[in-house]
Amino acid sequence: MSLYLDTSTIVPLFVAEDYSNEIAAWLEAAEQVLIVADLAVAEFNAVVSRLVRSRAIDQASADSIRSQFAEWRDAAAESLENLPADIREAGKLVCTPRPKLLTADATHLATCKRLRITLVTLDADLQAIAEREGVPWAHPGRVPQSLKSPP
């Protein structure tokens, strides 16, 4: 079985959060193929840039975080291309107003739906919609379920 990691699951691996260690331990114990899609890479880079803009980190730290992420992705995960069909399906998924589903999250969900793989997310709304759509999802361990994906 493969685990498709959305951005909410990836960011805490490289940006310290209270639950970063729990996520890392859960992923290591899962002993399954980890998948990181191109969209998650773009979102990850946007989150790191937002941290620089907000002065939470400096540019040198951002460069180091991005480098660590790229090395980890190359060594520990499989890369995946999101397809135009995923974006078309995401356009359908966002038509339901509740719970809230952002376009990027809908694209992650659509990709998992197409490939019939498990979505790993911290976003409770995304979990609910995945369940509604019949997409298997997982939540990493004891991490709070109310967390939202980074914008």
Question: Which secondary structure elements does this structure contain, and how are they paired or packed?
Answer:
Layout (H helix, E strand, L loop, with lengths): L1 E4 L1 H8 L5 H11 L2 E5 H16 L5 H18 E4 L3 H10 L9 H13 L2 E3 L3 H10 L3 E2 L13
Parallel strand pairs: 1-2, 1-4, 2-3, 4-5
Helix pairs in contact: 1-2, 3-4, 5-6
Describe the structure.
- The chain is of the alpha/beta class and 151 residues long.
- It has helices at residues 7-14, 20-30, 38-53, 59-76, 84-93, 103-115, 124-133; strands spanning 2-5, 33-37, 77-80, 118-120, 137-138.
- It contains seven helices and five strands.
- Strands 3-2-1-4-5 form a five-stranded parallel β-sheet.
- Helix 3 (38-53) packs antiparallel against helix 4 (59-76).
- The chain is globular and about 40 Å long.
- The chain starts with a strand and ends in a 13-residue tail after the last strand.
Helix content: 55-70%
* CA distance, first residue to last residue: 28 Å
Q: How many structural domains does the protein architecture include?
A: 1
* Count of strand segments: 5
The rounded Rg comes to 15 Å
Note the run of SSEs as H and E.
EHHEHHEHHEHE
Strand order within the widest sheet? 3-2-1-4-5
SS class: alpha/beta
* Stretches with pLDDT under 50, minimum 5 residues: 146-151
Largest sheet, strands/sense/barrel: 5 strands, parallel
Mean of all residue-level pLDDT scores: 92
Name the overall outline. globular
Strand content: 5-15%
CATH fold group = Rossmann fold
